[in-house]
Fold this sequence. Notes:
Layout: H1 8-23, H2 40-46, H3 49-55, E1 75-79, E2 85-88, E3 92-93, E4 101-102, E5 111-116, E6 123-128, E7 134-139, E8 149-152, E9 157-161
Amino acid sequence: MPLPQLDRRRLIAACAALPFVAACGETPAEAKSWPKGKTEAEWRRILTKEQYYILREAGTERAFTHPLNTEKRKGTFVCAGCGNALYASAHKYDSGTGWPSFWQAIDKGAVGTSTDYKIGYPRTEVHCADCGGHLGHIFGDGPKPTGKRHCINGLALKFVPA
């Protein structure tokens, strides 16, 4: 039996499917074991519906809707799920994107990353290192000294003034 011919349509379809095939081997952040892990029922009890959507289902809030986007006071941004210190106000900047943005985390162990293929191509997802909650994404278009933009959902954070 002859093999099917690889025409242009089949080649394009196969290439388009590659990111999704690669994503099949990925383990979502929520499936790992975390120091401050909880059952999904426990998360549903302690988080609002909107926070659950962001932190546990890797959702995204609408741009320019959360008050932490314009927060300018000195303090610490902590995980809304577990209270882990994530970002210092000294590292926050106005990226113009509509989400709180930081050029680095408060320390190396505060956040973790994984590869997210949800929109068809790889992005760097950032999550809380203590509970695994989805925070947002990291992009390479930030300011010096890191050149990184941690684009974070305001609902994933709580602000603790200094």
